[in-house]
Amino acid sequence: MTSSDETAFDESVAEGLRGQVGTWLDVGAAGAGRRVAIVAARFNGGITLRLLAGALRSLDEAGVARDDVTVAWAPGAFELPFVAKALARAGASDAIIALGAVIRGETGHYDFVAGQCAQGLQAVQLETGVPVVFGVLTTDTVAQALARSMDDEANKGREAALTALEMAALVRRTRRP
Q: Is 152 a catalytic residue?
């Protein structure tokens, strides 16, 4: 969900710009033949399970075979980058989705965990060339995390899955002659 209509991607404007370049890489989120790994945090696991359900439903709808989906559980969000890196190095995934929830508390713990998780996941994709999608909620309250993990179109796990498929397709396309 975007913050306003002015920030939304306008397909008609994009189509108008498409003719102004030689190569236009906009590949969509088809899932057939894609291998996707999901690293999920057990801490705040009730939220993570809701995100995982959204991601799995989205992957299924996109045509990703169940046998092509791997789910690996980490203790918390701080550990997600390590597991993602192990999966990326194994070479069995076209994209990796990181799911979890870091909810602000009364201490500075939130700032360290959320920031290091995001930086670590970014480093994994840049080091390995495997797209790693940040599906970790960083919210101020449990209510906000619950709202972003509802069983609907706004589920951030669902959004992360679609992003992973699009990134896998885009990376594959850039590697082809």
A: no
Residue 16 inside a domain? The answer is no
Q: What is the pLDDT of residues 29-48, one digit of tens each?
A: 678 889 999 999 999 999 99
CATH number, domain containing residue 148:
3.40.50.960
Encode pLDDT of 110-149 as tens digits. Answer: 888 999 999 999 999 999 999 999 999 999 999 999 999 9
Q: Which of 75, 109, 129, 151 is catalytic?
A: 109
- Domain span at residue 91? 36-175
Domain for residue 114, yes or no? yes
Each as own residue / partner, the long-range contacts of residues 138-146 (CB below 8 Å, 24 or more positions apart, any chain) are 138/102, 138/110, 138/114, 139/101, 139/102, 139/103, 139/104, 140/103, 140/104, 141/103, 141/104, 142/47, 142/103, 144/103, 145/44, 145/47, 145/101, 145/103, 146/47, 146/50
